[in-house]
Structures are given as C-alpha cells and as structure tokens.
Specification:
Length: 194
C-alpha cells in the first residue's frame, strides 16, 4: 500500500461453542486481524501527524474486508466490532490514536449502516505485548450482551519503530449472555447508543 511499510499480518478466528453451559445453537465466531507497520514517527516528536490517517485508510478497508471474509463473507453476520493499536517503544501513545479514524471508518464502510462508535484501546509496548481489544454491538453501544474483548498480540511485534494496528469483528453476543440490559432485538437505531 502506498506510503505504508507492512511487515506482517496475523489473522485469528475462534469459534466458541459453550462457556460451561449448554452448547449454543450457533457458535460465536470472533476474528482479529493485526497488521504490523513501520511507524514513520518513531524516535522523534512530529507536531503534525494527522495527515497519516489518510495513508492508513486503505489499510483499514483491506483489513475490514478480510475480516468479513474470515467470518464467511457476508457483512450481515457481523454484530460486534472493536479496534486497537500497540505502538513500539520508540513511538508514543498518540501514534496509536492515528488508527481511530481509519479503523472505525473502514468497518463502517464495509459493514454498511453500523451506527455505534467503534470501541478502541491503545498502548505503548515492546515485542510480544498483548492487547485486549474491546467489542460492542455495531448499532447500539448499550447492548450489554455484546460487551466483550478479544486478546491479540504477536511474539515479535511491535519492534521499537513499528505499530501493530488491530481490527476485531464478532458474529453475536457472548455465549450464555444473561446479565440483562438492552437486548439486540430492542435496538432503536437512532443514535448508536440504544
């Protein structure tokens, strides 16, 4: 991709059949894609980093499409999403924040009419750092059954001068979700919250 130096990607898909109770009629599928890229701002302070978000947009779209394919190819099966970034030690937390717009934009574009804010997390860390990427329902952040997280990480990434950017998608609520709150079938769909 123009303007980006990609070193590697890691795709992870898991199926959850039960969490100690009866097997689900349809297993929950969760997928994460981590892309390790060179951090163009590593080792120095750059006051104007915002233009790099445009450079990241094609990567976000490519990653979002790949996640949908990993979950069967139909965007309609995706009910949850989240994003995150791990910045290598020569970078700063704000470099991870550059992923907010391209990651969220990409999933909304690929999934269609998703209304909820895409939850996010970021941190600075060395190779092997793990990140718990938060997940919420794509149309209403208050749908408690879809509050989740998926742990990601790559043993040799990020190097000090790299960033690992992450997208996560899921196909449904936590298996055996039963703590109440707004149900997915009661979403009003007006504000991305309820």
């Amino acid at each position: 991709m123009p303007g980006l130096d990609l070193r590697k990607q890691q795709l992870s898909v898991e199926e959850i059949f039960h969490e100690g109770g009866p097997p689900a009629a349809v297993p929950l599928r969760r997928a994460a894609l981590v892309t390790v890229i060179a951090n163009p701002f590593a080792g120095r302070f750059e006051p104007d980093i915002a233009p790099f978000m445009e450079t990241l947009k094609p990567l976000g779209l490519s990653m979002a499409r790949r996640l949908v394919e990993a979950l069967g190819g139909d965007p309609a099966v995706v009910e949850g999403y989240g994003k995150g970034a791990i910045v290598g030690a020569a970078g700063e937390i704000e470099h991870g924040a550059l992923w907010h717009v391209p990651g969220g934009y990409a999933m909304r574009a690929v999934l269609g009419d998703a209304k909820a804010i895409v939850p996010s997390t970021k941190k600075v860390g060395g190779a092997g750092t793990r990140l718990d990427v938060p997940v919420t329902h794509i149309n209403a952040s208050y749908v408690r059954s879809h509050f989740d997280a998926m742990e990601v990480g790559i043993p040799d990434a990020p190097r000090a001068d790299e960033m690992a950017v992450v997208l996560v998608m899921t196909t449904g609520p936590r298996i055996h979700a039963r703590v109440g709150g707004l149900a997915a079938d009661a979403i009003q769909g007006e504000d991305g919250l309820r």
